[in-house]
Amino acid sequence: MVAPVSMDDNEIILLVEKKRNWIFEKFETFQRLAQIKVERELISGEKLLFRGEDYPLKIIDVEGRIPSVNLKDGQLWVSINRDVPSEKRREIVRKKLEQWYKSKAKELIYERLALFTDKIGVKVNTVRFKNQKTRWGSCSQRGNLNFNWKLVMAPTDIVDYVVVHELCHFIQMNHSKEFWQLVGNQIPDHNERRKWLKENGVKLIL
């Protein structure tokens, strides 16, 4: 904790006691996050998230074929040319998976935008998909939207929350009471979905 120099020891002790539950809650959260891998190994058997479900990764060697990704039989299959040197395989697998996830993210988010733009009464200009570390979505007053393609790893109801959140900013470019009322009109349990994203967003990695 950081405290102003002007605070005496008794004030600091009282403040810590008052915030005790919050401090322990944050400490437990940081401990949990520290145990989560920040980078995938991308080897067969490793589980990857897609639309809220875990799918085992299955990497198969093929003869002279362009690398491809398919979801079948409950697994994420990545085919890769068997002649690719071992030191390059992981990066090629990552790139192909990223391309696949991006394409699926576009399909899903365009679908959800079509559902909610009419309900909220707004129009979208352009939509871009980015690889961002700390933001799931953003918007501009010109009607442009940016989404983190890793959102497609989350359950659809979480994607809906982010989509609605950004669309409501077209009406209220702030986080005022009026803004949250707009969000709540479409997603009454938005607080729970927001909490899920805060607690689990770190798991949406490739």
From TrEMBL:
Domain YgjP-like metallopeptidase residues, every copy: 2-200
Record organism: Candidatus Desulfosporosinus infrequens
Stored Pfam families: YgjP-like
Protein name per Swiss-Prot or TrEMBL: YgjP-like metallopeptidase domain-containing protein
